[in-house]
Automatic annotation (TrEMBL):
Membrane protein topology class: Single-pass membrane protein
InterPro entries, per the entry: TBL, TBL_C, TBL_N
Subcellular location: Membrane
Species of the source: Camelina sativa
Segments of this protein annotated with the region Disordered: 57-81
PANTHER family hit by this protein: PROTEIN TRICHOME BIREFRINGENCE-LIKE 25, PROTEIN TRICHOME BIREFRINGENCE-LIKE 9-RELATED
Keyword match Hydrolase: no
Domain Trichome birefringence-like N-terminal: 96-148
Keywords, alphabetical: Membrane, Signal-anchor, Transmembrane, Transmembrane helix
Gene this chain is encoded by: LOC104754288
Protein name: Protein trichome birefringence-like 25
Lineage, broadest ranks: Eukaryota, Viridiplantae, Streptophyta, Embryophyta, Tracheophyta
Family to which the UniProt record says this protein belongs: Belongs to the PC-esterase family. TBL subfamily.
Location of the Trichome birefringence-like C-terminal domain: 149-444
Amino acid sequence: MDSIRLLSKNMKIEGNPFFGSSSSHQRNQIFLKFVAFSLLIGLAYRFIVTNSTVSPVTQLPTPPDSPSGLTALAQPPASSGNITTPTIASQNVSSKCDIFTGKWVPDPSGPVYTNVTCRHIQDHQNCLSNGRPDVNYLLWRWQPRDCHLPRFNPEQFLQQMRNKWWAFIGDSISRNHVQSLICILSQVEEVEEIYHDKEYRSKIWRFPSHNFTLSVIWSPFLLKAETFENLDGVSFSDIQLHLDMLDHTWTDQYSNFDYVVISGGKWFLKTSIFHENNTLSGCHYCQGKNNLTELGYLYSYRKALRLVLDFVAEPTHEAQVLFRTTTPDHFENGEWNTGGFCNRTMPITDSSQGEMKTEDVSMRDIELEEFHKTTTLQQQANIGLLDTTSMSLLRPDGHPGPYRYPNPFDGVKKKNSELNHIQNDCLHWCLPGPIDSWNDLMVELMLNRELHR
């Protein structure tokens, strides 16, 4: 830069260097100096710009000898570079925008919390603490196709939720979801746990300075059910499912809630005996036991959703409700108990590569049918649809996989027969991870509901 200043100083001459009384030789010298100055300025500009351009997504490839065998599905597309200031809900969402249709785009800012700054992450979802070696799955955000959806602002959210009660009702995915929300909010105010049941499946928290209460209620069927299984999910007797009775665990508390997120799903795939009108009416996958009729999981799931949606749509129930759709899993080459795994490290960027399993497709079809039936018959019902299925399908990289346990490959040789004995979790989500984006949609739907009816 000193040479540029010196050259510029030498070129400061009186009058116009091309017109005046100077000699031809002097004009030629001045012209050459001007050309040299221009070239030097151009080279300096190019050097500065080239060296200031940095890739917006950190590239941390898995080492070739990693025992996890993690594989990338797609390379991250170039970032637009537009980082949005967080707001409580989108200020630029156009009327009737479909926030569920879109794609995952690079977000180099990363999550708003980490496994260090949040102490509420369940061990099975604490992927980084459990030794997951890659981090690219943290650097994406959901972008609707036709509108803008920034992250919500936790400070403003807590202000708006002052003296309110928010409840999540469902299975372990609901617990996964509420832990994500707590981790985001705890960056503003630390939360207090004020209740848990004996199994730590249902919990209540409170943000004291805002008197904001948050609950998760364990009710995997949403119906009255007797389940018989150990902590590893292995059943030792058939589930007894009452298709005409809601689970009082959540209905008895319902009048306390201002906002409710409710969901069902995977538990209906388990072997179940159906009860209706105090009699055995059939079963799902009971293999001819007691000469019962095989009615299937779709029969029981439709019955459950009809009962649930009729209940929450009653005019006397004032809580605002979101019904969340089913969550697809990403097990490959088997299921959770047959050696299935999920070792992807990147999102699906081509929607044609994402294909849901038949069970997920069928369950989501029933969810949409029953939801639209409810909103058509009761147009004033305080029910919205939180359709996270499609966006979740595009994130096979966001699950714990083998990292549901700490350092799962310690002492394990790299042989397929041995790796198959490592249990993978390809249903729940790492925290932080893709499920954090569910909260952006959830808050947008709750607080700007009229735009999304």
